[in-house]
Amino acid sequence: MTQSRPETGLRRASLASPVGTLLLSSSGTAIVRVEWVDDSDLGAVQTAAGDTSGGSGADRDPLLTEALGQVGAYFDGRLGEFDLPLGLDGLSASATTVLTVLRDTVPFGDTITYGELAARTGTAIPARAIGTIMGLNPLPLLIPCHRVVAGDGLGGYSGGRRGEGLETKRRLLEMEGALPNPLF
């Protein structure tokens, strides 16, 4: 785990996970971003963020420390739902509505289709737009866009390491028991 503070006022911390290295960003009052970073890029990200200490910085942002603990517990199979303040500033009202409905109504181990989520929002947002909104989700994993699937399969996924989005989605759903484990 590495924690840093970029010039924007956000603090960042990385965490190795079974689906790649995650970089979480905190404003101090909310977690505002989760992204996958290639291990080869992590040093450059930390340097750009102004982190040269190499320390964990656990005392600098209690919310970020809590988020790292919850994400670690999720991957260890000890946590199904996250209890963190999340920031969705900068998104449209429609995107915020869709992501909030997803977070609040699709629990660990469940999936929902793009069309079902569109209907559940109570808006006129079409299923295709739901897919676009999932791709804009700044908080994948914490707002579980991996649980949104196509009517005829997994659909897409913008999370994960470069080129591994769909495999990451499949692994997360398997881990949650929403897909059977492969036989081979």
TrEMBL record:
<dbReference type="InterPro" id="IPR008332">
    <property type="entry name" value="MethylG_MeTrfase_N"/>
</dbReference>
<dbReference type="GO" id="GO:0032259">
    <property type="term" value="P:methylation"/>
</dbReference>
<dbReference type="Pfam" id="PF02870">
    <property type="entry name" value="Methyltransf_1N"/>
</dbReference>
<dbReference type="InterPro" id="IPR036217">
    <property type="entry name" value="MethylDNA_cys_MeTrfase_DNAb"/>
</dbReference>
<keyword id="KW-0808">Transferase</keyword>
<keyword id="KW-0227">DNA damage</keyword>
<keyword id="KW-0234">DNA repair</keyword>
<dbReference type="InterPro" id="IPR036631">
    <property type="entry name" value="MGMT_N_sf"/>
</dbReference>
<protein>
    <submittedName>
        <fullName>Cysteine methyltransferase</fullName>
    </submittedName>
</protein>
<dbReference type="InterPro" id="IPR001497">
    <property type="entry name" value="MethylDNA_cys_MeTrfase_AS"/>
</dbReference>
<dbReference type="InterPro" id="IPR014048">
    <property type="entry name" value="MethylDNA_cys_MeTrfase_DNA-bd"/>
</dbReference>
<dbReference type="GO" id="GO:0003908">
    <property type="term" value="F:methylated-DNA-[protein]-cysteine S-methyltransferase activity"/>
</dbReference>
<feature type="domain" description="Methylguanine DNA methyltransferase ribonuclease-like">
    <location>
        <begin position="11"/>
        <end position="86"/>
    </location>
</feature>
<feature type="domain" description="Methylated-DNA-[protein]-cysteine S-methyltransferase DNA binding">
    <location>
        <begin position="97"/>
        <end position="178"/>
    </location>
</feature>
<dbReference type="InterPro" id="IPR036388">
    <property type="entry name" value="WH-like_DNA-bd_sf"/>
</dbReference>
<keyword id="KW-0489">Methyltransferase</keyword>
<dbReference type="GO" id="GO:0006281">
    <property type="term" value="P:DNA repair"/>
</dbReference>
<dbReference type="Pfam" id="PF01035">
    <property type="entry name" value="DNA_binding_1"/>
</dbReference>
